[in-house]
Amino acid sequence: MDFMQALRRRWADVDSLVCVGLDPEPSRFPHRFAGDDDAVFRFCRDIVDATAAHACAFKPQIAHFAALGAEASLERLIAHVHEVHPGIPVILDSKRGDIGSTARYYATEAFGRYGADAVTANPYLGRDSVQPFLDHADRGVVILCRTSNPGAGDLQDLPVDDGKPLYQHVAAKIAGEWNGNGNCALVVGATWPEQLREVRAIVGNMPLLVPGVGAQGGDVEAVVSNAKSADGSGLVISSSRAILYASSGDDYADAAARAARDLRDSINRYR
Ligand SMILES: O=c1ccn([C@@H]2O[C@H](COP(=O)(O)O)[C@@H](O)[C@H]2O)c(=O)[nH]1
């Protein structure tokens, strides 16, 4: 089953648009992990196992592992998801973007080394820089369009040609030209509900990865109302810190499960 099929099946099977972000920060781990050499893997594994029933996808952020020298933990974590929770797609958030000859290696890193089902990519260098990812037709390529951060508009809102902002051209180009294999999705931040509405109008039913609820304060009702697809799905709404660190006590896994379930329920109220 390819990434898009797996995602659609998962939306339906668990009636959830929640993506659980995996952004390990050892200083925020519960005390029981102090001195544990394998803390990054074990903490993330516990979160995965506790939240899987409510998740349409998992999204590990590569810098959170690489900065700790914990790439091996990331490999094991993704293998764990595939082995213990088959059918839940893993989106590796690495936002890669480089000339084509190097991008080939980034594609091998994401899909070969880590075994991710999808990867985030930066379109700034143009189509040839994303093509090595697009060529993996069974994997998803989730391309930055209108990011969740405060400075997103610095470049992404610059008017192009007809006065429309750059992010709308990115959305149109990817939906119209880069999606020949049907494996593209876009990143649009939950913090920008109006832009979400604009992008949905441009891309039809293409999946949107939407980070920015939870710790960044995005409004769930506005996200879902403005950006759901025609059938009430189409969204991968990602939350990391609000789920991972819902409790710093020994109930961290149960608290994470409750946070993921509550987010699912709150999203479903507006679908
Ligand atoms: O526009 C973007 C693209 C990616 N991210 C990533 O999502 C998570 C958000 O974490 P929270 O704790 O839920 O705020 C993080 O890994 C970012 O790198 C994003 O926030 N915005």
From TrEMBL:
Stretches assigned to the Orotidine 5'-phosphate decarboxylase domain: 17-256
Gene3D superfamilies linked to this entry: Aldolase class I
GO biological process: 'de novo' pyrimidine nucleobase biosynthetic process; 'de novo' UMP biosynthetic process
Pathway given in the UniProt record: Pyrimidine metabolism; UMP biosynthesis via de novo pathway; UMP from orotate: step 2/2
Keyword Disulfide bond: no
Active site per UniProt: 95 (proton donor)
Keywords: Decarboxylase, Lyase, Pyrimidine biosynthesis
InterPro entries to which the protein is assigned, alphabetical: Aldolase_TIM, OMPdecase_AS, OMPdecase_type-2, OMPdeCOase_dom, RibuloseP-bd_barrel
GO molecular function: orotidine-5'-phosphate decarboxylase activity
Root EC class: lyase
Its EC number(s): 4.1.1.23
Catalyzed chemical reaction(s): orotidine 5'-phosphate + H(+) = UMP + CO2
Pfam families membership: OMPdecase (PF00215)
Family: Belongs to the OMP decarboxylase family. Type 2 subfamily.
PANTHER family: OROTIDINE 5'-PHOSPHATE DECARBOXYLASE (PTHR43375:SF1)
NCBIfam families linked: pyrF_sub2
Name used for this protein in its record: Orotidine 5'-phosphate decarboxylase
